[in-house]
Amino acid sequence: MNTNTVLPLFIAIPLGTAFLIVLLGRFREQLADLFGLTATALLTVFSLYRLGLLPQVYYMGNWPPPFGINLVSDPLSTLLLIIINGVSLLVCIYSVTYMTGYTDKPKYYSLLMLMIAGMNGVVLTGDMFNMYVFLEIGAISSYALVAFGTEDEELEASFKYLVLGSVASSFILFGIALMYSTTGTLNLADISRTTSERGLNSVMVFATGLFIGGFGLKAAMVPFHAWLPDAHPSAPAPISAMLSGVLIKALGVYALVRLFYNVIGMNSMYSGILMVLGLLSMVVGVILAVGQWDFKRLLAYHSISQMGYVVLGVGIGSPLAIAGALFHLLNHSMFKSLLFLCSGAVEYSTGTRQLKKLGGLWYKMPVTGSTCSVASLSISGVPPFNGFFSKLLIILGAVQAADRFGLWAYVIAAITVLVSFLTLVSFVKVQRYVLFGGLSEKLQKIREVPAAMCLALVVFAILCVGLGVFCPFVLNWLIYPARDVVLDKAGYISLVLVR
Amino acid sequence: MGLYILCSIIFLLGVYAVTAKKNLVKIVIGLSILEYAANLLLILIGYRTNGEAPIITPASQETARFVDPIPQALIVTSIVIGLGVTAMVIALCIRLYEKYGTFDVLVIKRLRG
Q1: Which positions in chain B touch A144 (Cβ < 8 Å)?
Q2: What CATH number matches the domain at B2-50+65-100, 1.10.760.10, 3.90.1150.10, 1.10.287.3510, 3.40.50.2000?
Q3: Cβ atoms within 10 A of the Cβ of B33, count?
Q4: CB distance from A227 to chain B under 8 Å?
């Protein structure tokens, strides 16, 4: 079998499974579990299999590049594919027991599969309009998943998310139309070639502004963040993990990185905009997070703050900072998914997620307690864990950029360290109120969550430690190749356009 | 140039409807206007004055007068996506109305944002 033909399977498998689950899941609910687990396991194997391979392009219907749609798999896509499919496998394992609390599990799995199909499509496609279509597939299924509990607050959060998400999508579509009107092509590599030959005209600059607004809203950067703290906590815990861990990265940050580095071309203006957005998100997100008393809401604000780190690293644009940003993307998907799954486990056992009503869970729920500690230490950037190394790379990247930004580089580095400290403060609060302290009367009878949920938590915790301890290997195999793709605009053009 | 200005005005009208209106249904209409502005821009980009259908026959070999077919294919897709979003948002509106008994966003604010 030609390894090339695996690429469409990343979209075909989850799409096909989504419809199979709806058809067959009504007979036996276990079939939905089985299909979900099999599909995500297969996808994880395929994405890990892509790891050592050379970049490949699949031409849909064998149309030559500027005309047809093509799927591109280079190390950057592979990194995102591993994140998406790996996290979704663990989330499916977790859902097997967690989602029994909700009615209609088959519909849940079906929507989850559609979301995975959309995200895989976004990271693989080499066509601008195709990217928009996949983005909408992922986004619409996530609107439905946020409302899955169909209580007052879930519906309200979903409506808010849907309105802002649709506005963002309209911005992106408007930008695509403008881009098409000036370049006459939709193929990303072809647009990239046109812009590097002719430079950016004013229509193109306007279109990039729309893209910053649209994808910035999808990535929940600070002026556009209002939907995230409502939408992410309202979803069921596994979906919160998918939304915070994967969706905002695949739909928002990945698209921004791909467009600005490989298609439009980075310049000092865009770099400045991204840095300001990143810094704002970091600072505002963490300040809002410190005051929260709802476990999941606190985590949601931290997502804004941590994505700020990634966008800051991307904005700085030196090789070291981009490597740090991409590494932080991987690490954030691990520890933030783990934290949301922990909050789900706490809610599953105790029935509440208000920090003040919890306490002393360490003694009753050892697995959840210890994995939650690992994740908290990772997100705060304590040395042996993965969060430390990616933050360190971003800070070093900022300091290294002193020749371009002068004194501002040190200010940025100082803010980064400060935000990291505030993150630690707010997670010390989580530890104090959830895990330690006295066990209240009501919580005397709680028990550890079932084995499947524990398994997912433990695997995530091992990954958090492993990515930190084996940091040099991870950097060499995953991150540096992806970074080289980001910085090599000409390489992307020649990969797609030369047959 | 005119088409950009026209579509931008319609687009901004949509943004105004989404941000300023207090009724859920009016917000939904605003979302549709946003969609249509983008679709209109796409279709106008492909428009040629006195153009013909882009089918090569022995009679019409002059391709310069052909209407661009790609935007037409694109808006068919984007109309379908718009339909999906509208169906989803209307379903949410109905459920919200069942829960709160109103379409007023000032009443529906249990979340602190």
Answers
A1: 88
A2: 1.10.287.3510
A3: 19
A4: no
